[in-house]
Amino acid sequence: MSDETKHSAGDGLATTALEDPPVDLRDYRIEDWVAFALFWALAVVVFLQFFTRYVINDSLAWTEEIARYLLTMVAYLGGAIAVRKFTHIHVEFLYVYLPRRIALALSVVVDLARIAFLGMAVYLGWIVTEIMQTQRMVIIDWPMSIVFGACTLGLAVMCVRAVQVAVRNWRSGTSPLLTVHDEGRHQ
User: Fold this and answer.
1) 177 close to 95: Cβ distance less than 8 angstroms
2) What distance in Å separates the CA atoms of residue 115 and residue 109, rounded to the nearest whole number?
3) pLDDT tens, 115-160?
4) Percent helix, strand and coil across the chain, each to the nearest 5
5) What CA–CA distance (Å, rounded) separates 65 from 43?
6) How far apart are the first and last CA of the chain?
7) How far apart are CA 88 and CA 92, in angstroms?
């Protein structure tokens, strides 16, 4: 029996006691901390909304709108985190069956397509942000360009992180997409 498995006294059932890996704060970047702060701001606003609606029975009108905007901002910054960590969903099926040389070329095409897509999204996001400067939020008299600007900023961080991931892949001569090819995993 391994060191990771422990028996409970009396019940005869084995339980697994795995330790969490140590946390290294150097693994986190600015988008992680901003997303963390926005997430907790979202939690406070949603709690405030719940409390005022169901406990006090007098809901604050602005909480629903601000919660929606905070959730959107967290999603876009979360996208930047996922790009940096290469944890977005992707299709690995072709990489199992293609020769390594072609699979590597395809992974380069995927990197370039990701950068192009995110670059275009940043450009379009910037245009929409400028347009939305005259549009006001429903409850709070702030410009909607704040929300769209935050989303565009998230897309810009995604684009920068995509360039960094691509450069890292190209320098190493491989890609996380090739893992299934190298391991020979068949779905």
Assistant:
1) yes
2) 10
3) 999 999 999 999 999 999 999 998 888 999 999 999 999 999 999 9
4) 65, 5, 30
5) 14
6) 31
7) 12
Q: What is the largest CA-CA distance in the chain?
A: 69
Q: Which residue has the tokens 């910037």?
A: 126
CA-to-CA separations, 5 to 13, 21, 82, 118, in angstroms, rounded: 10, 17, 33, 46
- Model confidence band, residue 16 (pLDDT cutoffs 50, 70, 90): low
**33: Cα within 13 Å, side-chain hemisphere:** 6
Nearest to 80 by CA among 3, 147, 16, 163: 163
59, 53 in Cβ contact below 8 A? yes
- Nearest 5°: the CA angle 156, 142, 59 is 110
Distance CA 10, CA 32 (A): 44
Tokens matching residue 65: 């709108």
